[in-house]
Amino acid sequence: MRNLTIVVGCGRLGGAIANYSSAQGDSVIVVDPDPNCRSYLTEVFSGVVYNFDATDESSLIEAGIANAREVIITTGDDNINLFLAHLCSVVHEVPYVYVRFDDPDKGILVQGTSIKVIYPFQLSKDRFSLLRAGLLERGERK
Questions:
Q1: Cα separations in angstroms, 14 against 110, 112, 128
Q2: Measured distance CA(47)–CA(73) in Å, rounded
Q3: Longest pairwise C-alpha distance within the chain
């Protein structure tokens, strides 16, 4: 049974997602080569942190990729994120794969797959549009 959430990259975004998922009761594994990544994890995080390079497939296997229900990939490198998204989705058949791309043009490389893309640029632009329209000040949500 696949019941594990794996977060690859534990900067601000990855750490926030790991904290949120852990607080929701998910079993969470964080993968980041930097031992200092733990600074983004709060007291609500009850998962496990592995400090290795996620592009090392054997390490992902040892960490439990076979049990992953979802993988969220948030490193700062679009090319690594693309590689890992395909590895998790196609090779390891993880049901839900979310990937962060800074470059909106990268999205075409996962079109037609089950991989879902997060664009921080687009999210910021959308939030700005809501703020400018005054929708957030009135408590309205999109």
A1: 20, 25, 22
A2: 16
A3: 50
Whole-number average pLDDT of the chain: 92
Average pLDDT score over residue span 53-73: 96
Angle at 68 between CA 30 and CA 73, to 5 degrees: 50
What does the alpha-carbon distance between residue 84 and residue 77 come to, in Å, rounded to a whole number? 11
Residue burial 9-28, b: 16+ Cβ < 10 Å; e: rest: bbbebbbbbbbebbeeebbb
The answer for residues whose C-beta is within 8 angstroms of residue 39's C-beta and 6 or more apart is 15
Where helices occur in the chain by DSSP H, the ranges are 12-23, 57-63, 78-86, 120-133
CB under 8 Å to 62, separation ≥6 — which residues? none
Quote the pLDDT of residue 124: 85
**Is the pTM for the entire model greater than 0.85?**
yes
Calculate the CA 75 to chain-centre distance: 8
Q: What are the helix (H) ranges across 49-119?
A: 57-63, 78-86
